[in-house]
Amino acid sequence: MFSFLCSSLGKKYLMALTGLGLIGFVIAHLIGNLQVFAGPEAINSYAQTLKDLGPLLWVARGGLIVLFVTHLTLALQLNRTNQMARPIAYAKADTIKATLTSRTMVLSGLLILLYVIYHLLHFTIHIIDPSYTALLDAQGRHDVYQMIIAGFSHPVITTTYLLAMFVLAAHLHHGASSVFQTLGLNNGKYRPITSLIGPALAFLVFVGYGSIPVGVMLGWIN
Ligand code: HEM
Questions:
Q1: Which sign, positive or negative, has the C-alpha torsion 99, 104, 110, 112?
Q2: What is the CATH number of domain 2-217?
Q3: Which of 51, 160, 38, 174 is nearest to 104 (CA)?
């Protein structure tokens, strides 16, 4: 088992599984955040419910960190193996394409890591704007609704988020088809369905997450 996980194929499987776990988080977080369109009560009570999970929340956070670190480490290892295994002077067009795609995925993955660090400093640790910590609603809960409005009232922050959502959407577009390729579902009768999932996911992530900063800018969330 251990030697399988250390092989290139094992690493690809593990990348696909950790990628699926991260996609699960991205979708769950999106559904949670879209509650901002239902008003302050919905999003603030949702955030409070998560906080009230206490130790369970830390278990979920730990799981998320393990998924992220495993996914990134394997990506860097597989990318290095790819480069070392390339035939002399890039003889085949297919190899050039595979190496370029793999490099683009590593680059977009690293940009997503930078975004997540920025996002945590912004909305979770409040280092970017410490005044967010004092935002409380009438029931004494953290006022996530007002924090989102304050956060996206700055055009530079809104633009940064929209660019990050574009990079995330592009990463998931290709990542989803890689997952199906690894799991052997990218051919035959499954192909018409699996080939749609990457573009659909990218659209959902870009339009879904993007609608929040755009909604604040346009006054739909106020
Ligand atoms: C418009 C887009 C987004 C909005 C409005 C948003 C909103 C938020 C808010 C309000 C929190 C803090 C919750 C709290 O402390 O009460 C949070 C935490 C977080 N967000 Fe986002 N988010 C967005 C996009 C993303 C994306 C695309 C990712 C991942 C790629 C992400 C990953 C996280 C993580 C990892 C946390 C920390 C969760 C925790 O505290 O355990 N977010 N987000």
A1: negative
A2: 1.20.1300
A3: 174
> Ligand 1, residues 18, 23, 26, 29: which to mutate, most atoms within 8 A of Cβ?
29
Give residue-wise pLDDT tens across range 59-88: 999 999 999 999 999 999 988 887 777 655
Q: How many residues does the chain have?
A: 222
* Residue 134 identity (one-letter amino acid): A
Report the separation in Å between the CA atom of 80 and the middle of ligand 1, taken as the mean of its atom positions.
31
Q: How far apart are CA 180 and CA 197, in angstroms?
A: 10
SS3 percent helix, strand, coil of the chain, rounded to 5, is 85, 0, 15
Give helix 155-182 / helix 191-217 axis angle, nearest 10°: 170
Strand-pairing partners, residue 142, are 136
Domain ranges of the chain: 2-217
For the whole model, what pTM was predicted?
A: 0.92
